[in-house]
Amino acid sequence: MRDLPRSLDLLALARELLLDELAPLLPPERRRDAHLIATVMAIMGREASSGEEWQDEVKQVVMAFYGEIGPHPNPLPACGEDEEHVLCRFAADLRNGAFETSPSRAAAARAILWRLTIEKLREGNPQFLATNGFRKADRQST
Amino acid sequence: MAVTALPRSEAGLGDRQRALADFLKTASGADAVEISRLELLSGGAIQENWGVDASFDGGQLRGQQRLVLRTDATTGVPSSLGRVEEFAVLKAAFAAGVSVPEPLFACADKAVLGKPFFVMPRVAGSAAGRPITLDPALEPARPALVERLGRELARLQTIRPPRADLAFLPPYDGPLGQIAEFRAYLDLHPNPRPVLEWALRWAATHLPDPLPPVLCHRDFRTGNYLVDGLRLTAILDWEFAGWGDPDEDIGWLCCKGWRFGRLDREAGGIAEHAPLYRGYEAESGRTLDPARVRFWEIIANIRWAIIALQQSDRYLLGGARSLSTAITGRRATECELELLMLLDPAGVAAHA
After folding, report:
1. Average of pLDDT values for B279-303?
2. Cβ contact, residue pair A131, B350, below 8 Å
3. Residue B290 scores a pLDDT above 70
4. From A67, B177, B190, B275, which residue has the greatest number of CB atoms within 10 Å?
5. Do residues B285 and B236 lie in contact, with contact meaning Cβ atoms separated by under 8 Å?
6. pLDDT at B238 over 70
């Protein structure tokens, strides 16, 4: 129903305009601000493109890790009423070393931590992933 | 924290410049002080640094002076010292032979500028991180620069508790106290941070043998010291100083977040560990234990992640309207990647 061009395409054009034409016109002490704005626009574009997909996938992976999940007996305070939130439970269990007696559970928990971190950086800072040698993780950097 | 900002222009001599001139006149014993230039300097995410050019008629600073006035920004972070306390730390470091600007005058009276401040000479050099790590002209000088940083740290660590002049610093209760503080912060944070929880658990179960506490800078890193040509001229920004572990500042300097484009050079993006260790060990007489330093590198990454989140809190909760402040919290995930790389090398191979 929405008109074209798509907002993501307009966002990409606006970012090009900012970096290629406007930033060079700014006094040197304000150019960093222009690049910060461009960074925010890039993050926004990547997050809008990926939607909720990876977050849902990570949530499913954590739920599968636990099997059936109920309220945590000792939730982190910030979880509040949202204490069934799977990542809250996961974080609380990691604080308490809940998986340390089982090497396979510990390895599975670490795999979730890697997945979560890499997915966040794919959106937030794919260049950082690439610089650290995570090139196969950098599948959608811009 | 409601404060009034100084005028951000160089034009005119407003009421606050007059009040500042009067303060400098009294503090220096001059007959008169005229301020010709007052400008906000770049850098300083939590504090404001103002360049002050002033002419002193008599007194201890007789003649033309280029000074720096350091005061609070409109919002801060909880662990930052007040300016008068930072001034006392700077005095102690100066007396211990650490390369710092000579602390001149402190003012706790909010009637002068609306907030406390202190004054020091303006030292030559630049603190900008990327030129220090990337400028080819600096390449031959980098090992010596890092060695010098090691020596500076060793000199700083000759300051040990108890000290009457630093009695405001809380006692050091070891890394478990820091871990408890980090967890207390995460308890209040709205988003769970599983990687930080996992790393904190590792730290809590791998505590190093304790060493007697020393004065730590707690932000000793590239970007917080001045380099003029090939020479280090001053260590800056003492607002986080406190009693701590002798290896804490070394871990912070080596934290990947402070390598400014040279991730391969562990010591502040400038060189490998070796010249840093060499300078520190020569000056202090203490041999560094790499496993102990690694523990503090882990803590450094956790701490940097939490500071990054706190920076975003200044926007989310404190009302700061700075984009650079607001976006800093996103960097916490970079620290989490580094924690995974440090603590799970097998995972690096699986994902790289």
Report:
1. 98
2. no
3. yes
4. B275
5. no
6. yes
Residue B83 is which amino acid?
R
DSSP lists the bridge partners of residue B50 as B40, B69
We find that the CATH architecture of domain B129-351 is: Alpha-Beta Complex (3.90)
List, for residues B96-144, the tens digit of each pLDDT value.
999 999 999 999 999 899 899 999 999 999 999 999 999 999 999 999 9
CA distance B73 to chain A (A): 18
Determine the residue among B259, B334, B340, B342 to mutate to test chain A binding: the one whose Cβ has the most chain A Cβ atoms within 10 Å: B334
The CA distance from B185 to the nearest CA of chain A, in Å, is: 10
Q: Which parts of chain B are beta strand (E)?
A: 32-40, 47-57, 63-72, 105-107, 117-121, 214-216, 225-228, 231-235, 242-244
The pLDDT assigned to B9 comes to 40
**Chain A residues touching residue B338 (CB < 8 angstroms):** 132
Mean pLDDT computed over B269-274 = 95
Domain residues of chain B, as ranges?
15-121, 129-351
